[in-house]
Amino acid sequence: MRRWSPTLATAAIENGKLTVWTSTQTPFPTRDRLASVLGRDPKTVRVITPFVGGGFGGKSSGGRQTEEAAQLATISGRPVQVAMSRAEEFFYDTFDPASIVKIRSAVDGSGKITLWDYDVYFAGDRSAELVYDVPNVRMRVFGGWRGAGTDAHRFGVGPWRAPGRT
């Protein structure tokens, strides 16, 4: 019995239309990306997303296997399924954004936080909001979590995985 669900996609062309079955959290952007990659009208691409449980960001892009299956089905004219091993899945995956976070804080005599001075570099402001009532707050963000056009992230950057905030 498998303890994990493989990352896979199945693609088929029928009557000039491409249908792809893949586990993705973004079926419409995946459709549009496939149409662009293959030079097709998005109206001729259908993405079906079977329910397979939570992805926590790991299924947000539709994945490399989706594009490969669609390209191979287009070239061969036959249905194609591309499945990645667990090792391949991690090898081709993206990473959380590397970042630098500088925090200065202060508390009063009763232990209440009175100052929160927060600078984050190259991770954007995602989930940086405070959940406490702090009277003196400064939060600054330098560069987005996707790199914002810089060379800060040398590898693919993707979703921040897991429920809740990092």
Radius of gyration: 21 Å
How many strands, which pairing sense, and closed or not: the largest β-sheet?
Answer: 4 strands, mixed
> Biggest sheet: strands side by side, in what order?
3-2-1-4
SS strand fraction? 25-35%
What is the number of E strands? 7
- Judged by helices, strands and strand pairing, the structural class is alpha/beta
The total of helices stands at 3
Shape: elongated
**How are helices and strands ordered from N to C?**
EEHEHEHEEE
Mean pLDDT: 82
- Percentage of helical residues? 10-25%
Low-confidence stretches: none
Q: What is the distance, rounded to the nearest whole angstrom, between the alpha carbons of the first and last residues?
A: 32 Å
Write up this protein.
There is one protein chain. Helices cover 19% and strands 28% of the residues. It is α/β, with parallel strands linked by helices. It has helices at 27-38, 63-76, 86-91, and strands at residues 7-14, 17-22, 45-48, 80-84, 100-107, 113-121, 136-142. Strands 3-2-1-4 form a four-stranded mixed β-sheet. Strands 5-6-7 form a three-stranded mixed β-sheet, with no helix packed on it. The protein has three helices and seven strands, in the order ββαβαβαβββ.
